Amino acid sequence: MNTTGLVTSLSEKLAAGDTVLLAWCCLGLPGLGEAMVREGYDAALFDMQHGSFDFAGAARGIELAALAGKPSMVRIPVGDFATAQRLLDNGASGIVAPMINSVADARAFAANVKFPPLGERSWGPSRTLQIEGRPNLMEFLARANKAQLAIAMIETREALEAIDDILAVPGIDGVLLGPADLSIALTDGARVNAEDRVVDESLDVIADAARRAGKIASSFCGSGQRARKLIDKGFRLVSAGLDISVVRLGARAELAAAKGGGGAASGTGY
Prior knowledge:
By secondary structure, the chain is of the alpha/beta class.
C-alpha cells in the first residue's frame, strides 16, 4: 500500500500511468466484490445505476474491498450527486456519473465531488479518514480533490460531440465510455451492441480527447478480451467483465470439470 492511504492509491496509480482493472459489481453482493479484488482486480466498482446496490450495500462493499487492501469506485444513479458526496465520505476513491451530456452536467457533477475552490462539496469524510488511517484533517483536505476522482460517462451523441468541453471542466478527472448506450444513440435506436462498429469508431475519439486534456480515458468492458483491446487504444481504467459474467464463466468451467470435460483448475475453492 502507498504511503498516503488506500483511498488515494487509485488516483496515484492512474497518475503514474498504470492500468487499473475494475471488478465491476452489479449483483448487490459486497462480498463478491471483495472476492474479485482478492483474485487480482486492482479496484472494485459498485453499480447503483443498473446494479442492485443501494447506499448501504455500496458502503459495505467499499469497506470489504478496503479490508482486502483495494480501493473502490461507485457508479451513482443519474443525477444523484448528493449520494456521490455521501459515498466519498464513506471511503469511495471515485464516483462514476452516468449521462453527463454537457458542460452544465459536468459542472454540477464536479461541484458535488470536489471541495472548494474546485467545487462545493460539504465537509464530513469521517469514514474515509478511518480508511485512510486517520490522517491529519488539513493533510487530507489538501489532497482530497486530487485523490477522489470524478469520472463523467460518455454514452450519448451529445456527450461525444462535447467531450473536449466536458474534459475541460475543472474537477472532472476523466471520462468513462458507456458502450451499450452509445451504440443505441449512434444508431438512432436501431441496435444495442457494446462492441458495435459505431462504438469502435469512437474509441480513438475518446482516448485522444482524454490524452489531449491530460485526463483519464476509461470504459466498461464486458470481457477481458475487450478490456485488452481498449487498453491498447490508450484506455487506462477498464472493467474486465462483471460479477455476473465471472460467476457464470466459473460455473461453466466447474461443471465441465465435474462432468469430465476439463476446465476449472484444482484447488480454487478456499
